[in-house]
Amino acid sequence: MLASLNYLDALNPEQRRAVEHGTGQERPGPLLVIAGAGSGKTNTLAHRVAHLMVNGADPRRILLMTFSRRAASEMSRRVERIAAQVMGKNSSLLTDALTWAGTFHGIGARLLREHAAQIGIDPAFTIHDREDSADLMNLVRHELGMSEAKSRFPTKGTCLAIYSRVVNAQGELETVLKETFPWCAMWAGELRTLFGAYVEAKQRQNVLDYDDLLLYWAGMMSDPGIAAAVSGKFDHVLVDEYQDTNRLQASVLLAMRPGGEGLTVVGDDAQSIYSFRAATVRNILDFPAAFTPAADIVTLDRNYRSTQPILSAANAVIDMASERFTKNLWTDRLSDAKPLLVTVRDEADQARYVVHKVLEAREGGMSLKNQAVLFRTSSHSGPLEIELTRRNIPFVKFGGLKFLDAAHIKDLLAILRWAENPRDRVAGFRVLQLLPGVGPGTAGKVLDAMATGPDPIWVLGEIPAPPRAAEGWTGLVDMLGRLSRKDAGWPLELGYARLWYEPLMEQAYEDAAIRMQDIMQLEQIAGGYPSRERFLTELTLDPPDATSDQSGVPHLDEDYLILSTIHSAKGQEWKAVHVLNVVDGCIPSDLGTGSTHELEEERRLLYVAMTRARDELNLIVPQRFFVTQQHKHGDKHLYAQRTRFIPRAMVPLFEDILWPPVTPAYIEGLSPAPVKMDIGAQMRGMWSK
Ligand code: ATP
Ligand code: MG
């Protein structure tokens, strides 16, 4: 038993209190861990899960929710490592059984399929990503004659944003319009009609969008019998990054654990950065009072991640926040190296500087994987991506273009989705129009006909070939029939889809050969999933990121640099971190300075970025940067101010440098070279004889 205590010895007393909370009790009460960045919240949560298992909790009855699938699998690995200290090799048997680890949306999808019969939905539902949802919103808008060109009605994207906001904030349409979309307030009546029709269309087609996964889950929990069955699956429910959940997620969670028994949430109000998705720190602040007796609270104030100079700079930035609950952090990781504030001329110099530093560090023995480049918006990394490619440095980009955003991958997935759910109109539209000769009109008619019968695929087989697409028609009907009958089984059936799609792709794209490699990659990924349904669900909810080698998926054995938006870097850490464009207009973003509320969120974003660094932090300040203002003036260069979040008084916390450095050679480069020859005299000389 002594050996089993080792893993607790590594913890500080507060962390240990959180890990051991309720040990031995049948129904431990609710627990909140609220603490700053790098204080070991996630680590504590992993220890708690391992500790529960060591003390006999059934891992299949532990529900662990994180903000991404990547975070969930990282957490499972940590749990396994800890459990291994106690139980040796057999620990992996336990962690393999930790089957309920994932995102709110992923878990929601699984629970809804399991309980579909009880809530009157078809378990074969397919899931629409944001783009599919916008497409469906557009179809419905069209059908209702609310086309934007005629009446300046909000765009499909804005309609979807409003709808999503109402649903996630659990608010009233009118209030959301007034507070967040005031320029659309005049359309309240039309929007209500549109959203009603949108909801009906989704139900007719048996599709759920992202928001529905939470909404239906919450709805399901309002029936006492179903609620008891769903929440009865779990003894423990644990949530990381609780500050970035929204009201709907909080209400689902409370419904899962009405008395808070076996419930643990951890978070940091200073890192709340998702309010654009209606996340609210109120969830974390209201948590203790949501239960009687109130939740236990553990706060942590020791940071184990960063050196003191890095932490001091990050603390100074967040100290200026107007509202804040967690305390300042301390660390015993002393160092003389201050973070750098690097002024460069422009984004090209910024890219060169980063490459220079990254290579320098690699020569010093720090692999690329220990270094990361963070930025406010995905487009900020453009010049750097070009420079990295030119210098042959492999990188992976998180939070940017997704693998699945590529048209050919979306095409192939639409085929699978349509076969899985032939009533999914957005998928049907996409697939039908792949056939030369089929336009939106024909596709619409075919889908209308299919919607009339109980067996849409059978109806499709009976429809006469559209005259202009006669050639490819049988092939399509045949392929879809095989896929819907699941003739070949998963994942081989993907081959049918590919065989049908390949010639069409060759006609449509000049670079079909390169795209074919992506499709091969997709087939490889597919092999990792037990069924078509799981594959489609998980890929839609949390798609893999695009990478530098154009093949979509990183070769995991290779060393590569991480490029990430700050949002996607949440919870992670690297030895060296470079933050791009630390200037007004970028951080804070121009879009984020509309209200104090938004400005405060931008400040927290910089805090999140800075606290990712363990040993080295470089904030880069280009004096000139390029912006694309889509709606107003087109592209232009801006002359930057430093970010307002690091005022002059804070600069001494940094090493303030210019790059390239001002050396005699640099100055010489700026001044005209001394005259060495007089060409004019030579020319004149030619004629002076
Ligand atoms: P964030 O707010 O960024 O999500 P966090 O609070 O979740 O951070 P962790 O990621 O859990 O912090 O931990 C930060 C680092 O500190 C990790 O490298 C972790 O291994 C280390 N750490 C945490 N607790 C301890 C401890 N008691 N002793 C030594 N190292 C620790
Ligand atoms: Mg964490």
From TrEMBL:
One of its GO terms (molecular function) is helicase activity. ATP binds at A35, G36, A37, G38, S39, G40, K41, T42. The keyword Iron-sulfur does not apply. This is DNA 3'-5' helicase. InterPro entries: DExx_box_DNA_helicase_dom_sf, DNA_helicase_UvrD-like_C, DNA_helicase_UvrD/REP, P-loop_NTPase, UvrD-like_ATP-bd. Residues 14-307 form the UvrD-like helicase ATP-binding domain. Belongs to the helicase family. UvrD subfamily. The keyword RNA-binding does not apply. It comes from the Bacteria. Keywords: ATP-binding, Helicase, Hydrolase, Isomerase, Nucleotide-binding. SUPFAM superfamilies: P-loop containing nucleoside triphosphate hydrolases (SSF52540). Its EC number is 5.6.2.4. Residues 308-571 form the UvrD-like helicase C-terminal domain. It catalyses: ATP + H2O = ADP + phosphate + H(+); Couples ATP hydrolysis with the unwinding of duplex DNA by translocating in the 3'-5' direction. It is an enzyme of class 5 (isomerase).
